[in-house]
């Protein structure tokens, strides 16, 4: 042996030393039998028990196993990556390994690694994989990651539903989607995709793809589909003519729609509020040089018909490198706060506007005045609107805009420093 064989530690830090000990199996005192083939992997009890309470229980607790530790449910390549992290606090996550590494992290209660996997997947959310990531988040109880997936779906649902991964998600995730109050898709299209999922689930269970079996695999999720929102002709031709709903449910939808047209709505078995929102924009022209600094903007509005407010459309920063933060409050006609959004971050967009959604949509009573108040942070040059309309047609009614009390009494030195009916930063509303 050369001197280097004895003095390999001299020029290394702790991480490199731990890696060397692991890679060269120096002074190992435990053998793990990993994977279906039970391949041998050598390690050190001290490292394992210091990094995982599950390993601690395996080696030192009252249920400690004797002899070699068998781990059949993790393949050797994956376990060696996981072991490398336990020794060095370092790992390279990829689209191919993140799911299996997350399984290891959750199984052995290595929360820091779970968090890293969660951040990695959050950064990778797109239309192709959002449902796959949501399924993983549901499986491992990653609530924050699942909420990020659902928020992505609000504006990207139609593109995401076209992906192959949608038909593979579980019934619980279907329910999470159908419970959403804001989705940029018609109820008819959403229904068709859900029925496609039900057909795939029937196939997985070796059931015939009949309406009766589709309802069976959907379970209580059938009650979350908003049949009264569908066009009457679509419901009659595509739903009522089949066996997906029972006779009482079909009659209930028809009676609700008849009573709605008569102006005397009866109670519905199904949710009746549309989740398909639309932008109601109030400006005819967009300009570029607005400067803001912790600036408060307010606009009041009324609707002549009952509507649902899903969020607010604001202008984005002018420069691509800039980020804006906005806080939003909604006040009712009694000036009581009824909804808010804290510290929503967004960047420049070629569309010049950005949609900010409320955590839960709110019902807007007709002919009552409500006020939207926004506050932006940082000195950021942003787009802004001029030549505002005081009335905008929406569905069968009109949305009317008014100067809020704060805007009317503004004493700013700058003409652009407050939002009014004619100009400002609040571009529009997200309504259904």
UniProtKB/TrEMBL annotation:
Q: One Pfam family of this protein, by short name?
A: PHR
Q: Name one GO cellular component term.
A: cytosol
UniProt-annotated location(s) = Cytoplasm
Against SMART domains, the record matches this protein to: BACK, BTB
Q: Which domain of life is it from?
A: Eukaryota
Name where it mostly resides.
cytoplasm
Domain BTB, chain residue ranges per copy: 28-95
Sorted keywords for this record are: Cytoplasm
Per the UniProt entry, what is one GO biological process? neurogenesis
Matching entries from PANTHER family are given as: BTB (POZ) DOMAIN-CONTAINING 2B-RELATED (PTHR45774:SF3), BTB/POZ DOMAIN-CONTAINING (PTHR45774)
For this entry, the protein name equals: BTB domain-containing protein
């Amino acid at each position: 042996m050369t001197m280097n064989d004895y003095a390999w530690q001299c020029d290394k830090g702790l991480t490199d030393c731990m890696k060397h000990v692991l890679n060269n199996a120096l002074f190992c005192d435990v053998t793990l039998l990993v994977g279906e083939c039970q391949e041998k992997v050598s390690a050190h009890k001290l490292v394992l028990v210091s990094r995982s309470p599950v390993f601690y229980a395996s080696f030192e607790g009252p249920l400690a196993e004797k002899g070699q530790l068998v781990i059949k449910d993790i393949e050797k390549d994956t376990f060696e990556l996981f072991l490398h992290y336990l020794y060095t606090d370092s790992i390279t996550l990829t689209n191919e390994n993140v799911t299996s590494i997350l399984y290891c992290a959750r199984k052995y209660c290595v929360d820091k690694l779970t968090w890293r996997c969660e951040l990695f997947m959050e950064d990778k959310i797109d239309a192709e994989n959002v449902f796959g990531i949501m399924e993983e988040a549901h499986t491992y109880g990653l609530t924050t990651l699942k909420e990020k997936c659902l928020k992505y779906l609000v504006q990207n649902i139609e593109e995401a539903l076209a992906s192959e991964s949608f038909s593979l998600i579980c019934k619980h995730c279907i329910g999470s989607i159908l419970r959403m109050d804001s989705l940029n898709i018609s109820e008819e299209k959403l229904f068709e995709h859900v029925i496609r999922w039900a057909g795939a689930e029937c196939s997985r269970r070796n059931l015939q793809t009949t309406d009766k079996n589709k309802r069976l695999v959907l379970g209580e999720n059938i009650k979350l589909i908003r049949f009264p929102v569908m066009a009457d002709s679509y419901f009659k031709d595509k739903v009522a003519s089949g066996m997906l709903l029972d006779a009482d449910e079909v009659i209930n939808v028809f009676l609700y729609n008849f009573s709605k047209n008569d102006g005397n709505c009866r109670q519905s078995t199904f949710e009746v509020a549309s989740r398909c929102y639309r932008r109601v924009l109030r400006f005819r022209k967009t300009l570029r040089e607005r400067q803001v600094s912790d600036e408060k903007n307010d606009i009041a509005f009324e609707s002549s018909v009952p509507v649902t407010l899903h969020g607010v459309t604001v202008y984005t920063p002018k420069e691509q490198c800039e980020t804006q933060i906005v806080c939003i409050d909604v006040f009712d006609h009694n000036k009581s706060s009824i909804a808010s959004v804290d510290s929503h971050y967004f960047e420049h967009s070629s569309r010049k506007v950005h949609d900010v959604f409320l955590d839960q949509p709110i019902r807007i009573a007709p002919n009552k005045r409500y006020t939207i108040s926004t506050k932006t942070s940082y000195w950021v040059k942003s787009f802004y609107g001029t030549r505002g309309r005081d009335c905008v047609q929406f569905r069968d009614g009109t949305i009317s805009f008014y100067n809020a009390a704060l805007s009317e009494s503004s004493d700013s030195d700058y003409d652009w420093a407050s939002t009014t009916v004619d100009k400002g930063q609040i571009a529009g509303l997200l309504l259904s």
